[in-house]
Q: What sequence folds into this?
């Protein structure tokens, strides 16, 4: 492995193996020192460098050549040198550039979070909370695209796309054949299939997990629940697909499995599985296995307490004392109600999580 | 485009265009009779690849595509791993608005480029050399292929050239009409048959270029200039010009001048002489007065007349890399690719800047966010200002948007889109303000010359 090299990021010193990128060195330190990433994905080769949110200032090139780098550099694609000094959150220039990039990413983004399935686990939301302005300076009509249907599993919302290219890399590196790509140029560039075609290759479902925004979402979960109302649990099954790691995250409400995704780590990337396989999951696990009985539940996912998903407070839960037995002098209540019997909106015979399609208003009429 | 290419006069030193008007120079026989392929003969028979690189280094030849990076140094960076082929790629994707010198070279002197390519390929050890040519130059492909065939038939290309054991073939590849493919790494992607997105550097092409092999990408004019460098020797070549601006440079002059065309200058003449002398541009057309000029192709900062002819220090400005850049971006510009665009008093700077923002918006590849969104945003704001719907705050917003693009993009297209806007606001802010405060009048008449040709007062002292 060779000798470690010394890097100083935001005045914090760390020793890393040569060849490490600035971003990975910063992630080793962790916390706010790690620059935000919208396009870089360590599990996808060649990704990164495009969104420019991870720009950092190199105030000292290396021990040998201490000159600073004149421009801000993309930390995800710049390797460290021995003695390098990097400024991330301690640099005014970086914060200003990051604010600029955030503004650029948002000017054409519809900001339709209230109806977006990604809301609550969207990296653009996080980025705009951290680095966005409170007011838009863009007073033009936002960009629109012709709708493209990618089939019955994956929903494409091109208006939300930030052109990170991750889904293109997924299709290139995980599936048999890439059927979608980037068409056109500049502000007209878009993710599309050219000839309308559904994305069906196995493992293509992973584009949903890598998409940092709500441009690619799970059609089988569409409009069925808000992510913060569902409770993530880690689960696994013996998947027969040799490439599939079989370790997933189930997004449940009560006993219903609403959605299946890969296990995402603190950097928003799929975690390697316990058997050493990369954490990608096959389409069958993702789209077809929506019953609790399909899975072996390992336990609740540990969600960062700053995440909106943890608002359900289901980890480390302190159950309040049940008041009824107390007032009923030790007797349990006699009537227990089923939601389907008493709900004014849910139809008794419809289980939302088992719908193969987006939930629709007709699913709720009494 | 009907440009008059006949204004080539015997002024100053001519190294590239000396024979441009010899009858039949496009053909091998005439070109050879006029002393063509001497440099190839000299290089292959008497010089080693390393000595050729040394000569080019000594000549001080700087890349003629726009950035002005020393060519010899670029060549010396090429990695030479065992068993991996190396490539030379000629960047003929000349798409910078206002620049048409490479087209002239290839159209009139195709063998000069082929000769330069042979010498350079030998120096770099490239057995397969590519000319990536702008798609719109469709007819020039035929001219080049004809020249390549003639060169091959006469033993200058193919196997074992001049018995030296050196093999070289030249392939011509047409682009599909994207400005961005003139950026060297986007060019390589396109040449590989992929979408022309610029690559993230490092690795640089000298290490991992075409098909991940070490590659040098040079502009047409740079490669042509290798011929006189070898013929006369690097030191002699370096004596032409001034300071670090050595040799001769082709300038494509266009706009409101009497004699638009391609001129070869030796970088010692003043900007004023270049515009007004009859040997070159012949003055401003129709007896108008000079308002502004973009001296180096659409990407470089525009200068008002007073800062164009004299630097901020009051010194004469010359047509070379250093003098045009004097004063930095605050009061200077760049020689760039030599696309010299002259604007007279009837031209509207806002209108002109709008056409540039529209161009860069259209040509952005859309890969990185600042350029994709920023060029689009600037275009929308510029459009409002030009058509009388602008607000005073738009000027400051435009300034901020360009500032957020500049330096934050993958490739120089972001800078190229930001600089013209920045310079237009910097030097012509009152014209922008007039457009906003007089929205109706601005639709009917131009702002005019105002004080842009008045002597520049340095009030910083």
A:
């Amino acid at each position: 492995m060779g000798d470690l090299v010394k890097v100083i990021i935001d005045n914090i010193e760390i020793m890393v193996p040569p060849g490490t990128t600035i971003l990975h060195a910063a992630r080793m330190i962790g916390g706010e020192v790690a620059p935000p990433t919208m396009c870089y994905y360590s599990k996808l080769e060649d990704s990164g460098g495009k969104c420019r949110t991870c720009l950092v200032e190199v105030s000292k090139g290396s021990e040998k050549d201490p000159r600073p780098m004149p421009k801000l550099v993309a930390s995800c694609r710049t390797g460290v040198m021995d003695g390098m000094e990097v400024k991330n959150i301690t640099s005014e220039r970086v914060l200003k550039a990051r604010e600029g990039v955030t503004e650029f990413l948002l000017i054409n983004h519809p900001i339709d979070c209230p109806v977006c399935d990604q809301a609550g686990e969207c990296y653009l939301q996080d980025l705009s909370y951290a680095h966005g302005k409170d007011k838009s300076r863009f007073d033009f009509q936002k960009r629109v695209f012709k709708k493209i249907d990618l089939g019955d599993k994956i929903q494409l919302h091109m208006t939300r796309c930030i052109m990170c290219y991750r889904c293109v890399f997924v299709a290139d590196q995980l599936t048999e054949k890439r059927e979608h790509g980037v068409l056109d140029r500049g502000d007209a560039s878009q993710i599309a299939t050219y000839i309308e075609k559904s994305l069906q290759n196995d493992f293509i479902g992973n584009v949903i997990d890598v998409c940092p925004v709500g441009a690619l979402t799970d059609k089988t979960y569409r409009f069925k629940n808000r992510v913060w109302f569902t409770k993530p649990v880690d689960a696994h099954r013996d998947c027969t697909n040799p490439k599939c790691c079989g370790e997933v995250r189930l997004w449940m409400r009560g006993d219903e499995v609403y959605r299946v995704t890969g296990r995402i780590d603190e950097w928003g990337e799929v975690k390697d599985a316990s058997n050493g396989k990369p954490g990608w999951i096959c389409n069958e696990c993702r789209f077809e296995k929506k019953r609790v009985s399909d899975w072996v539940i390992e336990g609740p996912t540990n969600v960062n307490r700053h995440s909106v998903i943890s608002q359900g407070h289901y980890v480390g839960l302190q159950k309040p004392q049940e008041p009824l037995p107390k007032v009923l002098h030790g007797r349990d209540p006699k009537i227990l109600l089923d939601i389907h019997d008493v709900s004014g909106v849910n139809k008794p015979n419809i289980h939302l999580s088992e719908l193969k399609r987006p939930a629709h208003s007709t699913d709720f009429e009494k | 485009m009907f440009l008059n290419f006949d204004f080539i006069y015997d002024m100053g030193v001519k190294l590239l265009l000396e024979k441009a008007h010899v009858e039949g120079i496009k053909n091998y026989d005439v070109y050879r009779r006029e002393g063509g392929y001497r440099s190839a003969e000299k290089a292959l028979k008497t010089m080693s690849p390393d000595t050729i690189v040394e000569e080019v280094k000594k000549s001080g030849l700087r890349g003629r595509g726009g950035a002005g990076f020393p060519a010899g140094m670029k060549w010396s960076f090429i990695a030479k791993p065992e068993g991996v082929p190396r490539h030379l790629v000629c960047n003929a994707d000349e798409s910078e608005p206002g620049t048409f010198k490479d087209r002239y070279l290839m159209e009139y002197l195709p063998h000069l480029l082929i000769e330069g390519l042979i010498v350079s390929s030998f120096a770099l050890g490239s057995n397969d050399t590519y000319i990536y040519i702008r798609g719109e130059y469709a007819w020039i492909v035929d001219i080049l292929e004809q020249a390549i065939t003639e060169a091959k038939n006469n033993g200058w290309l193919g196997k074992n050239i001049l018995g030296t054991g050196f093999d070289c073939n030249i392939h011509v590849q047409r682009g599909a009409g994207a400005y961005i493919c003139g950026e060297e790494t986007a060019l390589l992607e396109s040449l590989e048959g992929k979408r022309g997105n610029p690559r993230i550097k490092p690795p640089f092409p000298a290490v991992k270029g075409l098909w991940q092999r070490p590659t040098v990408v040079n502009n047409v004019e740079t490669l042509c200039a290798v011929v006189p460098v070898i013929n006369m020797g690097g030191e002699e070549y370096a004596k032409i010009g001034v300071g670090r601006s050595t040799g001769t440079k082709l300038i494509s002059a266009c706009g409101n001048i009497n004699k638009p065309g391609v001129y070869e200058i030796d970088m010692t003449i003043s900007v004023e002489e270049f515009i007004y002398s009859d040997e070159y541009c012949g003055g401003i057309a129709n007896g108008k007065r000079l308002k502004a000029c973009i001296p180096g192709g659409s990407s470089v900062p525009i200068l008002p007349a007073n800062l164009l002819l004299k630097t901020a220090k009051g010194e004469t400005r010359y047509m070379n890399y250093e003098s045009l850049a004097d004063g930095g971006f605050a009061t200077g510009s760049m020689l760039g690719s030599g696309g010299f665009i002259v604007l007279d008093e009837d031209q509207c700077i806002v209108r002109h800047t709008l056409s540039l923002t529209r161009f860069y918006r259209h040509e952005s590849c859309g890969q990185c966010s600042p350029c994709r969104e920023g060029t689009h945003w600037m275009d929308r704001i510029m459009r409002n200002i030009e058509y009388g719907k602008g607000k005073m705050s738009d000027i400051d917003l435009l300034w901020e948007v360009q500032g957020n693009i500049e330096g934050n993009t993958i490739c120089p297209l972001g800078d190229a889109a930001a600089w013209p806007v920045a310079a237009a606001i910097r030097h012509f802010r009152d014209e922008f303000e007039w457009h906003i405060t007089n929205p109706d009048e601005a639709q009917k008449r131009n702002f005019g010359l105002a004080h842009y040709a008045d002597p520049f007062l340095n009030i910083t002292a």
Summary: The mean pLDDT of chain A is 90. The first strand of chain A starts at residue 5 and ends at 9.
